[in-house]
Amino acid sequence: MDATVAQTGTEGKTWGGGNQPLKASYGKMMMWFFIVSDALTFSGFLASYGFSRFKFIDSWPIADEVFTHVPFLHGVPAPMYYVAFMTFILIFSSVTMVLAVDAGHKMQKNKVIWYLFLTIIGGLIFVGSQAWEWATFIKGDYGAVETNGGKILQFLDKEGNRVAIGEFATPLPTTAETHTEGNGIWYMEGGTKTSFTYEEVKAGFLANDNLLIRDQELIPNMEDLRASDDTADKQEVARLERSYINLDATGEKAIYNREMSEAKLVNDGKLVVEGANLKHNEYGTPLFADFFFFITGFHGFHVFSGVIFNLIIFFNVVIGTYERRGHYEMVEKVGLYWHFVDLVWVFVFTFFYLV
Amino acid sequence: MAHEHKLEIFRGLLKFKSNERKIWGVFTVLSIVTVVEVALGIVKPEILTVNRFMAMKLLNWIFIILTLAKAYYITWDFMHMRDEVKAMRRAVVWTAVFLICYLVLILLIEGDYIYEVYKNNYIKFTF
After folding, report:
1. What is the domain range of residue A27?
2. Cβ within 8 Å of residue A328, ≥6 positions away
3. Fewest CB atoms within 10 Å of the CB: A75, A139, A204, B68?
4. Number of inter-chain CB pairs under 8 A, A vs B
5. Chain A residues in contact with B23 (beta carbon < 8 A)
């Protein structure tokens, strides 16, 4: 091969090649390049989430009310705990990763194997938790009714506790038939089948005087509004007082009085929504679900590919590839990617669950 | 490849004997910050949700600042930014921070503007 290498006569000079002004190897530099560009991709997603949230600032779902489930604790509302657990898992797997890198520097093969193994387990637990979180979100909680204008009507009792549509909906005789392949039609159109139809929910609601409805409107600061002399503000106060019963709860979702509740459901209601998908979302605006699926999904895909990279590196360490190569820089490069995934989660956690 | 590590955090307030010790120290810091965040997220003290600074709730300011603190320690200690040369650090951090700040500023201002249009215009989306 020597014969094919061109000699330029500049070896050893500043611009002769082989210089590393940033004191980082080519591979590490390129991993940093990738991380910066990937960070900008994620910022694009999170910033557009912020954009949509600011656009619908007073009707955005409250994360605390959406993510309230913990596995094996059915029916116990525990907001935040599970996602906090997921955060810890990811931070901890970052720690084991950096310990693996550290052991790699010291050429301690067995320690690298052990720490990488723990990192992979942590990554798998995280991806599994995310799948569970998705499944719970898609399955839904109480069910709701979507209006013609795309608003979501949720049901409450007089104390302000959420009521599931299954608890009051009155089953009505239906003419809908289940399509079987034997009928020979290739495809048919039809909406998603929910456990109750809009008509059934409406009948149950009208028969039950204890039920109220809320949509996503948040109660503004009434003191400021009442103090205002502006005509528009006065009209707004009149409208709020005519419609809602919990005006003293600033910043919470407004609950319609019985009269308004009935009017809303009968005049505006369109279809029953259970859970969330890309078009309908029982927790509020569909955009919330869209961003949730897209951003946590994109992040989950990063975790998944990180686990794959870690597995490849893990087996390479086990068969001694890096021991023979003389250094464990590959562990360091994959480690950078893994920490970056953790870094992104720190931001997703804040902007989806906390703020 | 550089094997030496800078073993201090908090500007030298905390010094560690080995890199491994430092990793556990940083993990402790990150855990404490996360616990504080989660506790605040569950309790939501009223004094922090009612009062605002620059149109944002104090609670949200705290969350964002703590998040940036966490991001700093993950990048600096787990990703070894602390041990890289200055030019490398700046090439990565300044680029990202500048572009992200710009993007966020533009999009949030635009989002707020559209909210005002929806709210104050003649067309009401209340059906």
Report:
1. 23-140+288-354
2. A101, A104, A105, A107, A112, A317, A322
3. A75
4. 140
5. 95, 98-99, 102
What is the distance between the alpha carbons of residues B17 and A82, in angstroms, rounded to a whole number? 35
Does A251 lie in the same domain as A149? yes
Q: Considering only the beta carbons, identify the residue of B27, B88, B112 that sits closest to A24.
A: B88
Residue A76 domain-assigned (yes or no): yes
Both tokens of A184, joined, read 């020979």
Asked which of A217, A244, A274 is the last residue of a domain, the reply is: A274
Closest CA to A29 of A99, A37, A342, A119: A37
The structural domains of chain B, with segments of one domain joined by +, span 1-84, 85-127
Tell me if A188 is assigned to some domain.
yes
Check whether residue A150 and residue A248 sit in a common domain.
yes
**Span B20-30, mean pLDDT?**
92
pLDDT per residue over A106-124, tens digit each? 999 999 999 999 999 999 9
Our count of domains for chain A comes to: 2
For residues A128 and A194, membership in a common domain is answered with: no
The yes-or-no verdict on residue B36 having pLDDT over 60 is yes
Q: Does B39 touch chain A (CB under 8 A)?
A: no
Q: Do A242 and A300 belong together in one domain?
A: no
Q: Are residues A153 and A270 in the same domain?
A: yes
- Residues of chain B found within 8 Å of residue A64, distances taken between Cβ atoms: 41
The answer to the question of residue A4 being in a domain is no
Asked if the model's pLDDT at residue A341 lies above 90, the reply is yes
Q: Which two tokens stand for residue A213?
A: 């409805």
Residues listed for chain A: 355
Residue B74 to residue B94: CA distance in whole angstroms: 16
Using pLDDT thresholds of 50, 70 and 90, give the confidence band for residue B1: very low
Looking at the structure, tell me whether residues A28 and A133 fall in a common domain: yes
> Given A24, A44, A80, which is nearest B41 (Cβ)?
A80
CA distances, A44 to each of A304, A355, B101 (Å) = 21, 18, 11
Per-residue pLDDT tens over the stretch B42-81: 888 888 887 888 878 899 999 999 999 999 999 999 999 9
